[in-house]
Design brief:
37% of the residues lie in helices and 14% in strands. It contains 10 helices and 13 strands.
Length: 400
């Protein structure tokens, strides 16, 4: 595990144009957690989320000046972090990685209901948000994979709605303004239009039962009975929502790939954004990744490098400023890879198309390869010594 003082920095040839803001960090440990829905097979296809757990915590409040510095940028690059031990711990977990935004689960993803938030946690969360300089609009809580608001079974839909509403109420308790969720599935028992109408009805009810949280619908992969793989699905849901100020969209680049939208190049991103049926005015967040397959470490480097042009285009699009852009690239138990990804994407957002910028991109490519080689060598050494570690061949996609 790296620490703020031992983290690797980009080559000196990389030009940084952003201001630097001092932020905090405690050491943390990453664990992979497969969190799947058991409600419906179609919804259960959602991949596992790898989260980061804080270790070595003390009873003292974390002090921002002891943490990693964060680069100030209008493109809010972040990660999905663990809230183990209390939602307030997610804040320093994000700061450890130099993240300018973060996602988290507000309660257990394996249960329909969880104990209420403790007053102490609520107070600490708000205090740390202020101390670490995170805005509520830079936090994108992720909903439970159990939720399926489009299920035609009335009892199952009621359980989903109650779980959904509880999350929105937690957002309001914490002063958060966004809530990201998967729309759901027909489960093969109703039509697409009927399922979309059920989803919209649940949103309208939830909006009336809460005050201000924006419900952020995530686009989905194009498989089976899932709602949301086509941008038209999202547009149809939003069209039925009564209070348009309470609904938004989160674009997941992996789901876009799977649904047939090629954003692997700058040209592909331009074409996709032009045909975004909902309208980018509803965009409230993004998940950056390339595919949710198991890869070995060499493939991680290849895939990441292949998507750099698309990520670079996204991180130069002014329409995507000041929203959470959450990294969901392949991951393993080393904070170095996530820290490097945050640094790399922040660097991409500062670049133009000069010779100096092109040289900087080359330096970034070298850095990515170097990080993967180091982690790969460490994994191999651990395997030979018999230590328990994640193997190269069993690397899982991170964060979600």
């Amino acid at each position: 595990m790296i620490t703020p003082r031992s983290s690797t920095r980009l080559a000196t040839s990389v030009r940084v144009t952003h201001d630097v803001v001092t932020r905090p960090t405690k050491r943390l440990k990453v664990t992979a957690a497969a969190e799947r829905t058991t409600e419906d097979l179609a919804v259960a296809n959602s991949p596992a989320k790898t989260t980061r757990k804080l270790t070595g915590r003390t009873k003292e409040e974390p002090r921002p000046e002891e943490f990693r510095t964060r680069i100030s940028s209008p493109w809010k690059v972040g990660v999905h972090v663990s809230a183990a031990g209390g939602v307030e711990n997610a804040i320093q977990n994000a700061a450890e990685l130099g993240a300018n935004s973060f996602a988290l689960f507000l309660k257990s993803q394996r249960k329909w209901s969880s104990p209420p938030l403790k007053k102490k946690s609520i107070s600490a969360f708000k205090s740390r948000m202020n101390a670490f300089g995170y805005s509520p609009s830079e936090v994108l809580p992720h909903g439970s994979y159990l939720i399926n608001l489009g299920n035609p079974d009335q009892e199952k839909r009621r359980k989903s709605y109650d779980c959904f509403l509880e999350d929105l109420q937690r957002c309001e308790q914490l002063g958060l303004v966004l809530y990201n969720f998967h729309p759901g599935s027909t489960v093969g028992l109703t039509t697409r239009d009927a399922s979309i109408a059920l989803i919209a009805d649940c949103l309208n009810r939830a909006h009336k039962a809460t005050n201000s949280v924006v419900t952020v619908i995530e686009n989905m992969a194009g498989t089976g009975n899932i709602i949301g793989s086509a941008f038209a699905d999202l547009a149809d849901i939003i069209r039925r929502v009564e209070d348009k100020s309470r609904v938004g969209v989160c674009l997941d680049t992996c789901h876009m790939f799977a649904a047939g939208y090629d954003v692997s190049t700058m040209e592909g991103w331009e074409s996709t954004s032009e045909f975004f049926a909902v309208g980018l005015s509803y965009l409230r967040g993004m998940h950056l990744n390339d595919s949710k397959h198991r890869w070995d470490l060499d493939e991680i480097a290849t895939k990441t490098l292949a998507c750099l042009p698309a990520f670079r285009r996204i991180l130069s699009d002014h329409r995507l400023q000041n929203i959470p852009i959450v990294i969901e690239t392949p991951s393993f138990e080393s904070t170095e890879i996530w820290t490097s990804e945050v640094e790399v994407l922040n660097q991409l957002s500062s670049m133009g198309d000069t010779d100096e910028d092109r040289a900087a991109v080359a330096a970034i490519e070298t850095k990515i390869k170097g990080v993967v080689r180091r982690v790969s060598a460490s994994a191999n050494a651990a395997a030979k010594s018999g230590k328990k570690t994640i193997s190269k061949s069993t690397v899982k996609h991170g964060a979600k």
